[in-house]
Design goal:
Heme b binds at residue 215. The protein has a single domain (56-350), classed as Orthogonal Bundle (Peroxidase, domain 1), CATH 1.10.520. Helix content is 36%, strand content 6%. It has 13 helices and ten strands. 45% of the residues are buried. Bound molecules: protoporphyrin IX containing FE.
Amino acid sequence: MFLKHLSAIFVSIATIRSAYGRACSAPPSLCAYDLTGAFTPKKRATCAGGQTVQNEACCAWFPVLEDILPNMFDNECGDEAHGALRLSFHDAIGFSPSQGGGGADGSIIVFNDTELQFPANSGLDDPVNTEVPFIQAHNVTPGDFIQFAAAVSLSLCPGAPKVDFMMRRPMPLAPAPGPDGLVPEPFDNVNVILARMADAGGFTATDVVALLASHSVAGADTVDPTIPGTPFDSTPALFDTQIFIEVQLRGTQFPGRQPGQGEVMSAVTGELRLQSDHLMARDSATNCAWQSFAGNLPGTQSAFATAFNKMAIIGHNPANLIDCSDVIPGAPPLPANAGPHLPAGQTQNDIEQACATAPFPTFTAQPGPATTVPAIPQV
Ligand code: HEM
């Protein structure tokens, strides 16, 4: 009897849904079932500044955006933007179904006394110190702010894809388990990193390689602490695919006097190469994915955005979050002359072919004397 009633209710909801489904003429992504089960155009709200958003709660993020672009990031894809992006990874990855941790929950800020002591979080005191006053000023949760700042940081890096931003992460309850293990280290081998990333967020090998496109807008401060701000590729202010090309070149030199732990020789003067990136480019589990992104900006953008969006909600049920992606600005395109290239002084013969099933794509070298990459100006 009960079952009969239940199925009658389902039938009537289905009837209402299909009736309204025919009524919602907008594309399916702009329609939603409301509380009565009707399939209607999603509601939009207009914020005080005139912007329109899907959910009124998202309006609160526009003042944050307008504050952090000039006052936290100086409107550039520089040191602060790079630090915010790295922080989002180190907060989110602190989760394991077996060991605990809250994922992208802001624990790296709230429990910074604990988490910043973890060796893998070395150097993150800078972005934590930068972000805390903005979190206090805007009264948002640290978990939300860290992911918001990372999404906004990408919007400052020409060539970056637009990533999602979900709000409503609660305050963290405890620090991520430590001191070692949950955050990948540059001296970990590929199997260890892939296993950790699969455990934390179900990331595939290709997802992990795609996430490393982030190292296209990045450098190291602490791997060799004598040379802070040493970039990982020749264009650290552009989200491009140079990281996938330059790490495949034969390494010949260290940028500092002595290599740091987890550092191997790089091909270009002034560049620092992480051992983990070097191995990802060469290990049979990842080398073809790595190669597939070299010179393939659209493929890199889309795979990075997919994996990043997954990373930003580790530890959360998406049904409890509000999608505020419409607050995140798009990044400018790459400059017209920023096409993929070999750095000046390199040739195709310097590429260490690793993928067994396809040749590495061919690139021309920039003209002029061998490239020397300047350090990223430190704040
Ligand atoms: C999965 C393996 C990864 C390893 C082993 C790794 C390791 C590192 C290391 C050692 C540094 C240099 C830190 C320093 O000395 O200052 C670094 C920098 C950076 N990483 Fe990663 N990383 C990984 C993945 C990621 C991911 C998934 C992201 C973001 C989505 C990311 C974003 C960054 C950024 C933006 C920087 C530059 C920070 C700055 O310039 O201040 N990394 N990474």
